[in-house]
Design goal:
Strand order of the largest sheet: 2-3-4-8-9
Radius of gyration: 20 Å
Helix content: 10-25%
Number of helices: 6
Oligomer: single chain
Structural class: alpha+beta
CATH superfamily of the largest domain: MutM-like, N-terminal
Distance between the termini: 30 Å
CATH topology of the largest domain: N-terminal domain of MutM-like DNA repair proteins
Length: 304
């Protein structure tokens, strides 16, 4: 599943093409891509067509595109198109009029005042991703909703998602308290999007390796110093992955132009089962972890 770096790369690619554009037409080819939308395909199309897109925003692994009011002076709540890429979703930019793509689910034909006519194509091979129109609510902390916006609004579907470690409004003290009072494994805490968002299996394994912490160490057993080091390594690995365009192991994660990221070449633990630890040479091991896998060095990352 795409994590913060991959979703941020998509957001940054969409923003210059969509901010200020008008949605001229909407084509829903597969209603399975509307699982988070309250209505049917006709409802989605009618609520989006003709609207202006005011930007592209991200919190954690969610994207949203705030929409200008449908009618001047309307007293309805502000809305946005909310997107989640799921396991294999892609948001691709194509020239207007290009033939349908394989696994295409939804297409937005937009007109930008500078870039002209474009098509934003939502492609999803495994159909776990979705788009939806959702209302925007005030953020509880009064800070901007997410990356790409200075407005203190967040979609109702995203309000339960915590801020990510790169968000200026991320509450580090609240994160520390949440970790130190839990008896859950530290990796489980890192994957809990209501505690800290944007981190998935790849970057949790990488940050834990860099911090020399075993993925099953309990949160309340960590020292304040260890927790501070972990948070620093989480931010460092996210920044490095962003600089390299994210992590691509197959063709399912690409940016808006269809290009793969290359951070996979910089991984130290994730996906390196049996290979020598870059730090000590001990073979990296892989163990089952809540329907996923954890990769770590048994020498550098001792459980106790």
């Amino acid at each position: 599943m795409p994590e913060l770096p991959e979703v941020e790369v998509v957001r940054a690619g969409l923003e210059p093409a969509l901010a200020g554009s008008r949605i001229d037409a909407v084509t829903v080819s597969d209603e399975r891509a509307l699982t988070r939308h309250a209505g049917d395909a006709a409802d989605f199309e009618s609520r989006v067509t003709g609207r202006r897109v005011d930007g592209v925003v991200r919190r954690g692994k969610f994207l949203w595109m705030p929409l200008a009011a449908a009618t001047v002076g309307t007293d309805r709540w502000p809305e946005a198109i909310v997107g989640h890429l799921g396991m294999s979703g892609q948001m691709l930019l194509r020239e207007s009029g290009t033939p349908p793509l394989r696994h295409e689910r939804i297409r937005l034909d937009v007109r930008h005042p500078e870039h002209g006519d474009l098509a934003v194509v939502f492609v999803d091979q495994r159909t776990f991703g979705s788009l939806a129109v959702d209302r925007l609510d005030p953020t509880p902390d009064g800070a901007a909703g997410g990356r790409g916006s200075g407005v203190a609004l967040v979609p109702s579907q995203v309000a339960h998602i915590a801020r990510d470690p790169l968000d200026p409004a991320f509450d580090e003290d609240a994160f520390r308290r949440a970790v130190l009072r839990t008896r859950s494994a530290i990796k489980r805490v890192l994957l809990d999007q209501t505690v800290v968002s944007g981190i998935g299996n790849i970057y949790a394994d990488e940050a834990l390796w860099a911090s020399r912490l075993h993925p099953e160490r309990l949160g309340h057993d960590l020292s304040s110093r260890s927790l501070g080091r972990l948070l620093g390594e989480v931010r460092a690995v996210l920044h490095r992955a962003l600089a390299e365009g994210g992590t691509s192991f197959d063709a399912q994660y690409v940016n808006v132009n269809g290009q793969a990221g290359y951070f996979a070449h910089s991984l130290n633990a994730y996906g390196r089962t049996g290979e020598p630890c870059p730090r000590c040479g001990t073979p990296i091991v892989r163990v089952s972890f809540t329907n996923r896998s954890s990769h770590y060095c048994p020498k550098c990352q001792r459980r106790a």
